[in-house]
User: Which sequence fits this backbone?
């Protein structure tokens, strides 16, 4: 059984299966609805019910207050229709959003690489190509772990060889390839399993693409990327995509890490900076070890941004990905350096334990 949900003011229609949430059905049918957490805690996906009945699901009282429930509001990520419905949503879609539908994939582990003492690179070969925008993420099912874990895709969506069907191919430019950077979280069941149990040849389920973190290509402002830890993954995909497509803007990558061993892919970005005059790479270490013999910037990554631009970031777009404290410090630094909030895009890298 399924129900028809009409989304106003656009009039778009969604078929929602019995037991399926409105958000899941919308994303799988290429209909944009705003969302963030996907599980009833942030309130981003709040919509107004104009007609029909639904099970409102597990919405937290913070995300959906009692007075809002009384007014007929629901969270699209929790709400399961029990009749045909009409809802009203804020469907103000970013002009650069391509809206590729979410689909389910079987993913075979093609390669595993140690990137740093705490971060693993995992290359999956999908059962078919996935269309996504550089910077988006997938939800991964991990055996024995309830729910899914979100990981940003670290490769660009380009396809150098569309005919490649070699399941062991580790070429990151294949369209049916998804590369992830997974940081091991102490005591975390999901990342612990991915670090200790996952083997080449294992097959997992994932869905995607999700997210609104992508480069706005319709403007011409120079771009600042600020990345911390394994939050490098989506900026890496976005930078490779920009350089591959010959984007002429000035592109700056500020990569933060604790020490030299954690500063992975440094050689790759130094090489890209040598090849592309519009790409600039500034690594920053905030806990340098004596053996690092570090001659680069010492301090937090947002401090490197301030020093580099001398408190003047206006005229740029900024894309931030990393742990929440890094994001908060970087946003403050950018705004104090004359960048408007509307020019700052971010992916809070809430740890996938
Ligand atoms: Fe966060 Fe629905 S997306 S509450």
Assistant:
């Amino acid at each position: 059984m399924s129900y028809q949900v009409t989304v106003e003011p656009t009039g778009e229609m969604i078929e929602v299966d019995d037991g399926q949430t409105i958000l899941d059905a919308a994303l799988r049918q290429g209909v944009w609805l705003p969302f963030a957490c996907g599980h009833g805690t942030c309130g981003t996906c709040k919509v107004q019910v104009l007609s029909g009945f639904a099970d409102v699901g597990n919405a937290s009282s913070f995300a959906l207050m009692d007075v809002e429930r009384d007014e007929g509001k629901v969270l699209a990520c929790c709400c399961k229709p029990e009749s045909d419905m009409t809802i009203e949503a804020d469907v103000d879609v970013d002009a650069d959003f391509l809206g590729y539908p979410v689909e389910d994939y079987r993913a075979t582990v093609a390669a595993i690489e140690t990137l740093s003492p705490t971060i693993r690179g995992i290359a999956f070969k999908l059962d078919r190509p996935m269309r996504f925008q550089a910077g988006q993420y997938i939800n991964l099912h991990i055996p024995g772990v309830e729910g899914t874990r979100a990981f940003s895709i670290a490769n660009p969506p380009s396809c150098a060889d569309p005919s490649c069907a070699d399941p062991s191919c580790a070429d990151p430019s294949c369209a049916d390839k998804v590369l992830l950077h997974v940081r091991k979280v102490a005591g975390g069941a999901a990342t612990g399993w991915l670090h200790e149990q996952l083997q080449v040849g294992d097959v997992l389920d994932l869905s995607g693409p999700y997210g609104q973190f992508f480069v706005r290509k319709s403007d011409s402002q120079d771009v600042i990327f600020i990345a911390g830890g394994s939050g490098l993954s989506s900026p890496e995909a976005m930078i490779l995509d920009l350089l591959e497509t010959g984007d002429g803007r000035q592109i700056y990558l500020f990569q933060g890490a604790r020490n030299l061993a954690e500063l992975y892919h440094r050689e790759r970005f130094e090489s890209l900076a040598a090849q592309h005059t519009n790409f600039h790479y500034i690594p920053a270490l905030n806990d340098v070890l004596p053996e690092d013999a570090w001659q680069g910037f010492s301090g937090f990554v947002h401090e490197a941004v301030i020093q580099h631009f001398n408190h003047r970031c206006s005229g740029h777009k900024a894309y931030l990905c990393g742990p929440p404290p890094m994001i908060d410090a970087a946003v403050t630094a950018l705004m104090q350096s004359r960048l408007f909030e509307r020019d700052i895009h971010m992916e809070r890298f809430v740890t996938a334990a």
In short: The first helix runs from residue 22 to 28.
